[in-house]
Amino acid sequence: MSTEQPQVVDGDPTVPEQGAPPTDGATAAETSRAEPPKAQPTKAAPSKAEPTEAKPTTAEPTAAEPSKAEPAEAGAAAKAGAAETEPAKAEPTEAGAAEAESPKPEPAKSEPDRAGAAGDKTAGDKAGEGGAGETAQVKEAQAAPRDGDTKVEEIKVKEEPPRDPFASFAPEPERPPTRRQRVGRAIGRFLIHEWTLASLGSLALAVLMTWPTLRYPLHTLPQDFQDPALQAWQMAWSGHILLSDPSQLWDSNTFFPERLSFAFSDTLLGYAPAGMIGEGPAAAILRYNIIFVLAHALATFGAYALVRQLGAGRTGAIVAGAAYTYAPWMLAQAGHLHIVSNGGIPLALAMLARGHGWSLTHGFRPERRHAGWAFAGWLVAAWQITLGFGIGLVFAYVLGLVTLVTVAIRLGRRVRHWRVRRPWGTRLVIADLIGGLVFAATGALLSLVYFEVAYQHPEATRRVQDLEAYSPPPSGFFTAPPESLIWGDLHESVRNGMRWPAEMTVLPGYVLYALALAGIFFSVWKLRHRLLLLAGVLVTAILAMGPNFFGGTYTYLPLFNHLPGWDGLRTPGRLMLWTTLLLGILAAGTVSALVRRVNDIAAIRVTGRPGVLLRLVTLVPLLLVLVEGLNTTPHPVVPQQPEVMRTDPGPIVVLPFNRTYEQPVMLWSTTRFQPVVNGGSGFTPVRQERTREAARTFPDQASVDYLRELGVKTVVLLRDSLDGTPWQAAVDMPVDTLGIRREEIGNTIVYHL
Question: Taking residues 42-68, what's their average pLDDT?
């Protein structure tokens, strides 16, 4: 047995020196079994406990449980040594590593301390319990090494904390969600998201505010069955020809034998995917009514998104969206789907502002830039152009002006702050370049066709006299159309003094006027922004008056005479679209400031939230705007399609040949899309005018010869529509000498030339 003295570390139980031989006759095999496994040095357990002196009484056991890790045949002394010093956490061959992990020993020990350590070792040798220098605590805890299992088990029981009797009443631990639960939560978050609610709310509002459009969607059209029938045919034709022969897109089946007849009016080409679904007049009518409602929903959603991006609150954005879509003057445009389909304008502006990190309340924030949103904004703008140049041309010029101003401002700031490089970022610049090229290419390709039509048909060019017939007077800004439920009858006397009330009654709403006026003084927008919005309202309103504002010499006419394509616009009053949008932004600032004030008042209440009355106050502007937008729009039944239009291959001319039935004939042709001479648009081609004059005497030899020379094979007379027309007597006229064949099919009289 070795007599080498052990080390003493701050009163802790002594630790045998590294490399000491086993004591009390322990064999090498037992020592190797008791030797703990080698591991990387970690913090030793003795450093966590207060050092204690050796006492004859039993001490509290340490946190270590060597009985679980040591083999059953290992000596109790090795177990006690592992419990006190945890030699498994230090390399057994490097004493310095063990010393580094244990608390730093004092530099010197007094002689009594050394004597006490020697006494402990002697007692341990007599008891035969393991390593040299064990303390009395370890010897008492392991007095019977052969019965160590029972002793250690008793120590384990003492180590366990007392059980809490109330643990049984504790809530169950939250279980991780399953895949189905995660999917359900994701769907729930999507359904309650702001933009989901805004989309659904816009759609529900559109159904209610355009009612009864969807009451009989297969048989009726809003406003009348002329222009809506034309636009229903446009969607059907674009979908049909893109599936069958895209090269013939512009040479439609109407206005036979004219070329490029599809470009005689706004094409609604962006709705071509909808035109690919279904066939025949019933499908075309249903398609039109659905798109009509969706166009209102998109306008509301687009204006809401724009105002939210600019920095207004939700309530203010809802008011702006409703005022923009359901302004009283828009009720007169219910028969013009290309005017109603204006939601892409504010939506594209909202996306572009979001992509460039810009808002009215915060200005330009580079950290909010997002190239994807900017590119999407350009795509939406390009889609809006495809719906027609009636409002798309002005939108293109506005977008170009905004681009030039933005670039000029950014370049100016870069010159002043030359250290700031790439204010937009590379990705955003690339997105703007590609998106801008897509937008410009779309507009250029479409405009080429319209320029060709204007060249071939000089009669399509607008004159200043035409502008005067469609430009509203100053009183028109306070006059509602007859379709307004609230103001229609009250303003009837004023409308009677107008030459074209449908385009001259441009009231955006008295409630909108009041909210916008209040927004100049009480708003969330900054003062300079309010003044800029006010200036925009005045400029667009003056331009909407056309030549009626001091002759338009310095306002509308310079644009009409010098800007490409501007001379194709005959209705300056439709510029009220921009006036209404700017008024809505001003009104949103007022309503948002009102909501903030209500929240401030609610903050000092006991409940800390606004009550019912305070909430109703914030909704009053919205209710007033919606009430002012209620309509009495008629929904006439579309005339029934003649049976011959479903079977005859054409070319066909339908009589009476006048403006009343031109568009319905176009709609009837959606079954076979056979060539028809009939057609309606914003102008009348010279050849069609000659055909109308020649057909007034049908059936006679001159008219038959003219129609044969034109290429017409079939003439159809609508028996119920001939009263008061030149063809009223044609029903009983003999045709035997004309070399044509006559037959009656249903309610029509058909002549085969």
Answer: 40
Helix (H) or strand (E) holding 89: none
| 318 contacts 304 by C-beta, under 8 angstroms | yes
DSSP 581-639: HHHHHHHHHHHHHHHHHHHHHHHTSSSSS--HHHHHHHHHHHHHHHHHT-B----PBPP
Residues 471-506 as b or e (16 or more Cβ within 10 Å = b): bbbeebbebbbbbbbbbbeebeebbeebeebbbbbb
- In the sheet that holds 741-745, the strands lie side by side as 652-655, 714-718, 748-752, 741-745
Helices and strands (H and E) in the chain: how many: 29, 6
Token readout for 506 is 């441009």
What is the torsional sign of CA 149, 155, 157, 160? negative
CA distance 222 to 635: 5
Best mean pLDDT range from 31-35, 227-231, 415-419: 227-231
pLDDT tens across 541-592, in order?
Answer: 999 999 999 888 899 999 998 898 888 888 999 999 999 999 999 999 999 9
Query: For the segment 253-310, what is each residue's pLDDT rounded down to a tens digit?
Result: 999 999 999 999 999 999 999 999 999 999 999 999 999 999 999 999 999 999 999 9
The amino acid that residue 736 corresponds to is D
Cβ-count burial of 513 within 10 angstroms (0-12 exposed, 13-18 middle, 19+ buried)?
middle
Q: Phi, psi (5° rounding) for residue 676? A: -130, 140
Alpha helices in 6-75 (DSSP H): 28-34, 66-69
Contact status, residue 23 vs residue 2, Cβ threshold 8 Å: yes
Token pair belonging to 601: 């008042």
Helices within 167-279 (DSSP H only): 179-191, 194-209, 227-244, 272-275
The pLDDT of residue 104 is 43
Residue 410: predicted pLDDT: 77
